[in-house]
Amino acid sequence: MKFINKNTIELDREINELDRFVFDFLKVLEKHSDYVIVSGYVAIILGRNRGTDDVDMIIPKMDKVQLKLLYDDLIKHGFWCINSGDINDLYAILEQDKKSIRFAFEPGFSPNVEIKFAKNEYDLLALKNPVTIKMQNKKFKTSFLELQIAYKEVVLKSNKDMEDAQFLRDIAKGFINEHLIHEYKKMLK
Amino acid sequence: MNAKEIRKKNDEDRMWFVRKWANYVKTHPDRVWSKQQNILINSMIHNAKHSSLTLKQYLKMKGEL
């Protein structure tokens, strides 16, 4: 694992089933939208030895027409949305309820990608300053680690999240900015 | 030990292992640690794919129903 600069990490790890699923999803998503991967999968990519069956992603808010184009393309590539097949329902979940929708390979529901619209300044910041993780000939964008750690330690706070945060702190020691984590933690309280 | 103490000890043990594993990841090539990590992840994915859970139960479990 090489921390090239504050926005790039290079990995030479073996690919697993979850990574393959994420790559397949991103191949479609990237045609339609920007994104950042957040939460548990970020720690897992960097080596945390725990499983997950959902991968969280934040995307910029889009209108219903754009969402329909993304949805249709995902369907064309073998995915389905496990929450609903009605684009109006899906848009309402994302836009009005500010919640997420999940896509899996049809007819299964695990693993799945959970996408939600950016809904606050932290989500927008994560989208604006992503960390690119390069893995073999693939790359994907994640939220920067300082914000991930602060969010897990102040907002989420479950054992699993505290362990993820500690893992990220240990693995990226010397690369992450502790002062920035402290500042985000103050702002998130 | 009472239940609270057992939970605390369990949390401490888990965190100890997280940090030990982080050190292992830092001190071994990516190909080495990822091979071990992938055994866990691939097996979880396999189990989830073959779970008897229904979609309704799954979404309920996630708090989305």
Would you give an account of this structure?
The complex is a heterodimer of chains A (189) and B (65). Chain A has 189 residues and is an alpha+beta fold. Chain A has a single domain, classed as Beta Polymerase, domain 2, CATH 3.30.460.40. Chain A is built from eight helices and nine strands. In chain A, α1 packs across α3. Chain A is globular. Chain B is mainly alpha-helical and 65 residues long. Chain B has one domain. Chain B contains three helices and no strands. Classes of the chains: A alpha+beta (189), B mainly alpha (65). Chains A and B meet through α1 and α7 of A and α1, α2 and α3 of B.
The structural domain count of chain A equals 1
Considering DSSP H and I runs of 4 or more, what fraction of the residues of chain B is helical?
A: over 70%
Low-confidence stretches of chain B: none
- Average pLDDT confidence of chain B is 93
**N- to C-terminal distance of chain A:** 32 Å
* DSSP strand tally of chain A: 9
| DSSP strand tally of chain B | 0
Order of SSEs of chain B, N→C? HHH
Largest sheet of chain A: 5 strands, mixed
Q: How would you describe the shape of chain A?
A: globular
**Shape assignment of chain B:** flat
Proportion in β-strands of chain A: 15-25%
- Strand/helix succession of chain A: EEHEHEHEHEEHEEHHH
Strand order of the largest sheet of chain A: 3-4-7-6-5
Strand-pairing-aware structural class of chain B? mainly alpha
Features:
heterodimer; A: 189 residues; alpha+beta; Beta Polymerase, domain 2; 8 helices; globular; B: 65 residues; mainly alpha; 3 helices
SSE blueprint and pairings:
The complex is a heterodimer of chains A (189) and B (65).
Chain A: E1 2-5, E2 8-11, H1 17-32, E3 36-38, H2 40-45, E4 54-59, H3 64-76, E5 79-81, H4 87-96, E6 101-105, E7 112-117, H5 121-128, E8 131-135, E9 138-142, H6 145-156, H7 159-171, H8 178-188
Parallel strand pairs in A: 2-8, 4-7
Antiparallel strand pairs in A: 1-2, 3-4, 5-6, 6-7, 8-9
Chain B: H1 3-27, H2 30-49, H3 55-61
